[in-house]
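From: lab user (bench 3)
To: helpdesk
Subject: output format question, protein + S-adenosylmethionine

Hello, I'm new to running complex predictions and I'm not sure whether the block I got back is the full result or only part of it. Here's what I submitted:
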Amino acid sequence: MPNNIQIWDDIYARDESYLRCPDDTFIRLFFKYKPSGDKLKVLDYGAGSGPVSEFLLSLSHKTYSVDSSPSACAMLRKRLSKESDISQSLEELSLGDDSLDMIVAWHVLYYLPRDRLKATLSDFKRLLKPGGIIVCTMLGEEDVFITSSSNMNQGTHQMQYGNQSGACVLGVDLHYFYNMWLAKNIKQGQVRFEFDHQVNHYQLLVIEND
Ligand SMILES: C[S@@+](CC[C@H](N)C(=O)[O-])C[C@H]1O[C@@H](n2cnc3c(N)ncnc32)[C@H](O)[C@@H]1O
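Helpdesk reply: Thanks, we reran it on our side. This is the complete output you should expect:
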């Protein structure tokens, strides 16, 4: 797989990559599925320029923001209040087991190589409290920016993504997630719209830790 981390770092080195608002779909899922409580501990994994982290902080939740890109982390440090913990890796945050109420991984997991995805999902499971929630997305197979796809084993396929020049993304059968969490704890949906004969498509997952 190409170095997606470098590709993203180049993107965030440019100022125009600053995203002001979180995705409307994320906001809807957040309010519908967030655990109860006024001060939740929430990880924003793959935080980018920080729209989700800023939103979480505005609601007074304890926020941890992780992004592998040093340029994105620099942006996060400028943008977010001192209340937030910002890091390039989960390990550096030294979070305890069963310590998080919620993890948001919005438009990031499909950029991880397969081994890394598996390790990251195991980390998520370990860090979440029982009953904690993950809200995440995976890329939909019909998305217009996918230019080619090749099957890998274990229900995964590697796809070339035209949107971030040279980025390679991972598609996974949902069994991949079901194997880690009990099926009854996963809600799944999709965002799909067609415009000018082109399809934009991604998968939505809300997972409750057992
Ligand atoms: C499409 S952006 C999404 C940013 C943000 N979640 C949002 O909704 O605006 C993908 C982000 O994932 C980050 N990323 C890519 N690979 C990563 C990895 N292995 N670990 C953590 N973050 C990663 C990139 O640096 C980039 O900021």
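A quick orientation on your result: Residues 4-5, 8, 19, 46-48, 51-52, 66-69, 72, 106-108, 111-112, 116 surround S-adenosylmethionine (CB under 6 Å). Let us know if anything else is unclear.
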